[in-house]
Structures are given as structure tokens and as C-alpha cells.
Design a protein that fits this description.
alpha+beta, 4-stranded antiparallel β-sheet, about 20% strand
Length: about 220
């Protein structure tokens, strides 16, 4: 438990430098996200060990501080984050973006049949959650997407990013799910303050929502 508490403090000592953009770029001094916290965990311990959960230091702070904020506003909700990028950035397959430390996938928060918040099941069987298929009503087997918890996460993420001087340039969620997100308590704020991709992405974003942060980056020559 001590290592989980200290890890973010130790790993954010240096500032990162990003180059280019999310689709073509690199990163210097990337910071690894903690594998878990009181209300969150990574999608895969293997993915973390392989180095697939690094972010730009500014984005890292926003993500970790947001989980701390949600712990107060929605103490019964649990979250799982997905892939981010390499410590030095660059192409991280199969993603087309995630190259300069400013992209992160958040796996959708879910509830079980009793309405309790539970972690999305992630394993090799379902490609660590990326192969789960939710229907257009946000259901998969005995699980249901917890849109209130998702909305609170995005709301707190936006507030934290603004406080840290970090922009959010894009959010991707499967279009049929967006109306349910906008019907939540935070829906009006989300509609006004977060830029969602128009239309469909190259893969369905039903099991996760993708967020691109925005900070000043240097030109990329590569």
C-alpha cells in the first residue's frame, strides 16, 4: 500500500516534453501511471510492465488528481484506465494515435445486476477489455455502463485539466452511447465543455472512451 501512495509522488519529479501531435510524435521523460489506487486500476499488469502506461507529466497529474477528486464526489465508484503510450512516445500498436504522451483510454465504468460499481473485467480472453462489445443500450452480459460514474469522471477530468492549464482537445465515445451520457447529472456541463468526435472512429469506442489532452509541444522531425 505504501508503494502505491508514494509512487505518483516519486514518478512526477521531472517535466515531460512532447513533440508533434498524437498521430505523429514522440515524448521525452514520460511518467508511468500508478498500477492502482483506492478507486482505480490499470487494464493490465502485463501492459504496465511492458511500458504501455506512460503519459506526459502534465497529463499524468490531471489523471491522478482526477481520481482523487472522484473518490470524494463518488466514493462508491471504481474505475479502470486503458492504454496510454510508451515512455518515449512513438507508434504503439494497434493505436493510430497515443504517440506524444497526451492520449489515454479510459475503460467504461460498469455496474453489476445489483447496481454496484464493479471493475470492467479485463484479461487475455477479451483483449484486456478492448474486445468487449456493449450494445447500443450500454449492456454486456450482466454488466451495464455506469453513465453517471463516467460523466462524473469526465466532469472532474475537465475541472482538473482547467486548473492545471491543460486542454482537452478530443473525447471519443461510440455515438449511440453519447445521448445516455448527456442525460446524466453532469450532461449539460459535458455538452458545453468537452469536444466529442463527430461521427465514428476507425474502431468502436464502446468499451472505452478516448481522451486527448493538449499542452504546448515542440515540432516533430521524424
Amino acid at each position: 500500500a505504501l508503494s502505491v501512495i508514494l509512487f505518483p509522488l516519486l514518478s512526477t519529479a521531472g517535466e515531460s516534453t512532447c513533440y508533434g501531435n498524437t498521430s505523429k510524435g514522440r515524448l521525452e521523460n514520460g511518467v508511468k501511471l500508478p498500477d492502482s489506487g483506492r478507486n482505480f486500476r490499470s487494464y493490465s499488469s502485463v501492459g504496465a510492465v511492458l511500458g504501455r502506461t506512460y503519459l506526459h507529466s502534465s497529463a499524468h497529474k490531471v489523471v491522478v488528481d482526477t481520481y482523487a477528486a472522484i473518490e470524494k464526489s463518488m466514493p462508491d465508484s471504481v474505475y479502470v484506465y486503458g492504454e496510454t503510450g510508451w515512455k518515449d512516445g512513438g507508434r504503439i500498436r494497434p493505436h493510430r494515435t497515443h504517440q506524444n504522451g497526451l492520449s489515454i483510454d479510459f475503460m467504461v465504468p460498469v455496474t453489476d445486476t445489483s447496481g454496484k460499481s464493479v471493475s470492467l473485467p479485463t484479461s487475455t480472453i477479451n483483449k484486456y477489455g478492448y474486445n468487449i462489445e456493449f450494445d447500443n443500450n450500454g449492456r454486456y452480459k450482466d454488466l451495464k455502463i455506469d453513465f453517471e460514474s463516467m460523466a462524473e469522471h469526465l466532469y472532474q477530468l475537465s475541472l482538473t485539466a482547467k486548473r492545471e492549464g491543460v486542454g482537452i482537445s478530443l473525447v471519443i465515445l461510440d455515438p449511440p452511447l453519447l445521448p445516455m451520457l448527456l442525460k446524466t447529472k453532469r450532461g449539460a456541463y459535458i455538452r458545453k465543455n468537452l469536444p466529442f468526435m463527430k461521427g465514428k472512429a476507425w474502431v468502436r469506442h464502446d468499451d472505452h472512451y478516448h481522451v486527448d489532452f493538449s499542452v504546448p509541444c515542440k515540432p516533430f522531425h521524424g
